[in-house]
Design brief:
325 residues, mainly alpha, two-stranded antiparallel ribbon, 14 helices, 4 strands, 4% strand, extended
């Protein structure tokens, strides 16, 4: 039995490929109940739900080819274009074909329409079997799988039959951060990083409870958004120990320049608005009418009203106002 590894980032089609592999395994078998002997394992409950929905939905759509007497042309356009894509992928897996990306072309060369009809017949029977024995449809998270295994040998291990393992990620993160803080010393590189972090927070007039912030930040270490870039991040940090310091410096410069720009815009606005007729109405910002631009000036000049993330929109606002004036 060969091992297939799909190494891909989020949103690149892993669920599509895995669902196609699963369905291909079912169609290849002569027994409609073979799904009971296939285990699909995911990392999260959300991924489990998505995988089940994709498998059942695709089986139902393939079964529709016979149930609704669909033709090849129907599988090339919506709403069955995705079904056609799945059929092509499944057929390529079953026939070990890799050089065709077009279903119509495949049916003209190596894939017979009668074979697609056979897929539809089998898909209908498999779908019925799964729905009648849904508790044996094993798509589960990796922690649920190991808990099932552990409960199966609980007696041999001398453990209670109702054993349940709780996965306390929050507690694990808290203990990890606590150990990190306990290990800090004056000649420790981590201590220098923590000290710099505290100083940066103080300079920004932000809370500096390091333990709490690290616990919150550590949540990202378990997310796919970080996992897909982890190796690259670690390589960059190893090759350039000052990478994060340089990044913070660049980010601070960008923020400072943006604040100075906003301050100058606010001052300029106050100067110009002093001579405006407060009764005039202008449609300056995305077509929204301001009751009085003059009344908006003091709010914009206030530090609390300046949002760095809206710098571009505000600059466009001033350009629009100047063109009106």
């Amino acid at each position: 039995m060969s091992l297939k590894v799909y190494n891909a980032s989020a949103g690149s089609g892993k669920t599509f490929s895995l669902a196609a592999q699963y369905i291909a395994q079912l169609l290849k078998s002569a027994e409609k109940d073979d799904f009971q002997h296939i285990l699909a394992v995911t990392f999260t409950v959300k991924a489990t739900g998505e995988m089940k929905d994709r498998i059942l939905g695709t089986l139902s759509n393939i079964a529709d080819i016979n149930r609704k007497n669909l033709q090849l042309e129907d599988l090339l356009v919506k709403p069955y274009a995705e079904t056609g894509t799945y059929i092509l992928k499944i057929a390529k897996i079953l026939k070990n074909k890799e050089n065709t990306d077009n279903l119509k072309q495949a049916t003209e060369t190596w894939l017979k329409w009668s074979e697609i009809k056979d897929y539809s017949t089998s898909a209908f029977e498999i779908l019925k079997a799964i729905l009648h024995h849904y508790d044996r449809f094993k798509v589960t998270t990796i922690d649920s799988f190991f808990q099932t295994v552990l409960r199966g040998v609980a007696h041999e291990l001398g453990l209670p039959a109702g054993l349940r393992t709780e996965i306390g990620n929050d507690e694990v993160r808290r203990l990890a951060v606590q150990r990190l803080m306990d290990s800090l010393s004056s000649d420790n590189e981590a201590q220098k990083l923590v000290k710099q972090f505290v100083n940066d927070r103080l300079d920004a007039d932000q809370r500096w409870n390091v333990s709490s912030l690290l616990e919150t930040f550590s949540e990202w270490l378990f997310k796919e958004e970080y996992m897909q870039y982890r190796d690259d991040i670690e390589t960059r940090l190893e090759s350039n120990p000052n990478l994060m310091a340089d990044f913070r410096k660049d980010l601070s410069t960008i923020r400072k320049n943006a604040e100075e720009k906003m301050d100058s815009l606010a001052v300029e606005y106050q100067k110009q608005s002093a001579s405006w007729d407060s009764e005039n109405l202008f449609s300056c910002w995305d077509g929204r009418k301001l009751k009085t631009i003059k009344g908006f000036g003091p709010k914009l000049a206030s530090k609390a009203a300046i949002d760095i993330s809206k710098t571009k929109a505000l600059i466009e606002f001033f350009d629009d106002c100047n063109s009106v004036l």
